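Q: I have 299 residues here and want to know how they pack in 3D. Can you give me a structure?
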Amino acid sequence: MDQHKQATIMLGLLLLVGCFTPLPRLAGAPSLPPTGKGEANPAPEPLGPTLRLDYGRGESPGDPIAEFMYFVPLISLEPVSIVKSPGNTQRARMVSARRSFTARSFLVACEFEFVGEGNQQNVFDHTEKVRRHERELKDGGTLEHQLGAINVEGAGSVRIEVAGTMTNRVPTVTEVRLRFNGRGQTSPVTIDLHDIRYFDGSFRLHNESVARVNTLIFRRKSGPSKMGITVASVKRKDASDNFLHNLLGGLKGTAVNLFIQPITVERAGNDAMLNFGLALALEAPAFTFPRAKNLKAGG
């Protein structure tokens, strides 16, 4: 496709999705009339953070890492708290973007980098789940493989891949992949896993482990929304950071990837990630997340 034709198509697509970044009202332009005489305008829905999408143009300051990872409380089925280390300077910024469009499909690859120091956690609250399963836990049962937290430690490189279809020049995103091991670097993203049991008069965590996440995958499909995941390694939380434990953790991660199943997520979060992918495909200057209903107050 020649450059002129591609530019014309992209301009038309951007006009189609102008909702990604509302246009400001020009000075002196008349306001729209009210919807009805004496009728109050409905309060706007609260929104989440807005990400800058600079596509590697100039030196962008990027966005705080917690805002880039805001999709976590959006996809969570349980309440989530956001915790940052004191003096955290972590930020995420886009450094490049490549797009390939045909008459029937498109593929976008955007490179982001995590810079700065510190760590950021999304901590999951299992209180309600434990309450629902209280009787079986007290009878000796176990809640296995519970997700305790998703963590981002230090810097790293992230590649976001967006795939989709074209119908009458209208794009539809079918898959968004977040690769946290971009450019061959070690992923800075880990998840804390544990079992929950009732022992000696209280609910306790057992079999605590840490999995280093390589990829998260969001897809457009019928039925319950599910997120795919692949890991680089799985280690006990108390394992040492040495060659042997890292080797064994990598081997365990390879085995886990053969059997790990996609996990159920909130549809609103899955839809938000597909819309984020569309914003990247259409080179929108910014993207605003919807408000995460499971984000705990103060989080």
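Q: Anything worth noting?
A: Residues 82 and 122 are 5 Å apart (CA to CA). The chain has one domain: 48-288.
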